[in-house]
């Protein structure tokens, strides 16, 4: 009987190790899936945004308050969905900017930052949370924006704006005809 108990304890310990390894693997996969966004470490050419002919029922519900504004209306909302904006810096100013752009229904938001999230950022950089410490700020911000509005295309760039990449980056986000 003691031998059988010892054998069962040994098997249990092996299974517990397997569970720990599987939990670690799951956590890594969830982290990748949660972001669901390919972090850009170089500038690549983006395809144009697909035009929207009409607003969906979900769009009408989501943007109902701003659709009532005579200055915006349905055509203005459709124009917003065709607009691209590059946010340079995902810190104290870039975070609320990206948040409001996504909430308004901008079609594409590029998020450019070369830094990583630190605990000392969290009190003023509202898109980042404790769980995103150590992540690139662009990726953390993109994840938060996607949680807020999944219809907005987010492109996180883990880059520093430089004379070598500025023109190519900015050309990806042409001025709007609003």
UniProtKB/TrEMBL annotation:
The keyword Metal-binding does not apply. Residues 63-173 form the THIF-type NAD/FAD binding fold domain. The keyword Coiled coil applies. Pfam families: ThiF. Keywords: Coiled coil. Gene3D superfamilies: NAD(P)-binding Rossmann-like Domain. GO terms for cellular component: cytoplasm. GO terms for molecular function: nucleotidyltransferase activity; thiosulfate-cyanide sulfurtransferase activity; URM1 activating enzyme activity. Residues 5-32 form a coiled coil. Transmembrane segments: none annotated. One of its GO terms (biological process) is protein urmylation. InterPro entries: ThiF/MoeB/HesA (IPR045886), ThiF_NAD_FAD-bd (IPR000594), Ubiquitin-activating_enz (IPR035985). This is THIF-type NAD/FAD binding fold domain-containing protein. It comes from Coregonus suidteri. The lineage of its organism: Eukaryota, Metazoa, Chordata, Craniata, Vertebrata.
């Amino acid at each position: 009987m003691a031998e059988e108990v010892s054998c069962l304890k040994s098997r249990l310990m092996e299974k517990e190790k397997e569970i720990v390894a599987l939990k670690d693997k799951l956590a890594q996969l969830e982290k990748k899936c949660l972001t669901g966004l390919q972090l850009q470490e170089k500038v690549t050419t983006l395809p144009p945004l697909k035009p929207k002919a009409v607003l969906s029922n979900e769009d009408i519900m989501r943007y109902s308050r701003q659709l009532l504004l005579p200055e915006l209306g349905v055509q203005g909302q459709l124009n917003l969905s065709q607009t691209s904006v590059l946010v340079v810096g995902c810190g104290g100013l870039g975070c609320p900017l990206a948040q409001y752009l996504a909430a308004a229904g901008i079609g594409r938001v590029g998020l450019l930052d070369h830094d990583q999230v630190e605990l000392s950022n969290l009190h003023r950089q509202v898109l980042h949370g404790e769980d995103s410490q150590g992540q690139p700020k662009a990726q953390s911000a993109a994840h938060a924006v996607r949680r807020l509005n999944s219809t907005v295309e987010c492109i996180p760039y883990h880059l520093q704006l430089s004379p070598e990449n500025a023109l190519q980056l900015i050309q990806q986000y042409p001025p709007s005809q609003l």
